[in-house]
UniProtKB/TrEMBL annotation:
SUPFAM superfamilies to which the protein is assigned, alphabetical: 4'-phosphopantetheinyl transferase
Similarity section: Belongs to the P-Pant transferase superfamily. Gsp/Sfp/HetI/AcpT family.
Keywords of the record: Transferase
Source organism of the structure: Streptomyces collinus (strain DSM 40733 / Tue 365)
Gene3D superfamilies per record: 4'-phosphopantetheinyl transferase domain
Official protein name in the record: Putative 4'-phosphopantetheinyl transferase
Lineage: Bacteria, Bacillati, Actinomycetota, Actinomycetes, Kitasatosporales
Listed GO MF terms: holo-[acyl-carrier-protein] synthase activity; magnesium ion binding
Biological process terms in GO annotation: lysine biosynthetic process via aminoadipic acid
Length: 250
């Protein structure tokens, strides 16, 4: 992350699930807010996946911030987008499908991640006018069916990732923007460039059969690679936190 400015990790949520959600060691890692959210969920699998996603995110953020996972506090913005309380310099994105979890962190700007099964079939004729720009429809219509399916799925995960990065999700129409044939450049609905290099996009096929889409924004914060909590946070704020922790531990 110090080199590229962003990191994307993926894992099976079952591999991050504790032996029991009643494990007393789980509560301090999740924190009071997520502990309450966990026990408000009624579906057992949803509870398991929620706990695993928070553990993966906190351990990833802890590694980046060089701090213990239980010191990482998660909160949610309007619309449910997670963020790291006290570390606004780092943007966060989460996605899951089936047993796969994906976490993205970016210290230079916004980030969005999305994942789908690589063998998911999307009926092009049913979604083309809801998902694709005119330029994308022209390109996809000229492709053989199997190639069309692969291209459409890549387009889908990138559009999901980009709208997540903007904090819009499905509220933003997918026909309002498009991608070039290589799925690297952001385009207007008519096919002209819509950015000046500040956005980067990528899709990655996993051995387990999943496809991950990543949208990363570079807001021009520079190349400072230090993400340790002790140097990222305001010194006055950090001093107050350390003092408070010292008082509460006595």
């Amino acid at each position: 992350m110090a080199w590229h400015g962003h990191v994307v990790v993926h894992a099976s949520w079952r591999g991050w699930l504790p032996a029991t959600l009643a494990d007393p060691r789980l509560r301090p890692v999740l924190g009071a807010r997520d502990w309450q959210r966990l026990h408000a969920l009624t579906d057992p699998q949803a509870r398991d996946r929620f706990a695993a996603s928070r553990l993966l995110l906190k351990h990833t953020a802890g590694a980046v911030l060089q701090t213990p996972p239980d010191a990482v506090e998660l909160a949610s913005k309007a619309g449910g987008r997670p963020y790291l309380r006290g570390c606004d310099q780092i943007e966060v994105s989460l996605s899951h499908t089936g047993d796969l979890l994906v976490v993205g962190l970016n210290r230079r700007g916004r980030i969005g991640v999305d994942t789908e099964r690589g063998d998911r079939r999307i009926q092009y004729s049913a979604v083309e006018r809801h998902v694709c720009t005119p330029a994308e429809r022209r390109r996809l219509a000229a492709l053989p069916e199997e190639e069309q399916q692969r291209d459409l799925l890549r387009t889908w995960v990138l559009k999901e990732a980009y709208t997540k990065a903007l904090g819009q999700g499905m509220r933003m129409g997918f026909t309002q923007f498009g991608f070039d044939p290589d799925h690297r450049a952001l385009l207007t609905p008519t096919g002209t460039p819509a950015s000046h290099g500040e956005w980067s996009f990528g899709t990655f096929a996993l051995d387990g059969g999943h496809l991950i889409g990543v949208a990363c924004h570079d807001a021009g914060y520079g190349d400072e690679g230090d993400t340790a909590v002790s140097t990222m946070l305001d010194e006055g704020f950090l001093g107050e936190v350390v003092d408070l922790l010292g008082r509460t531990s006595r």
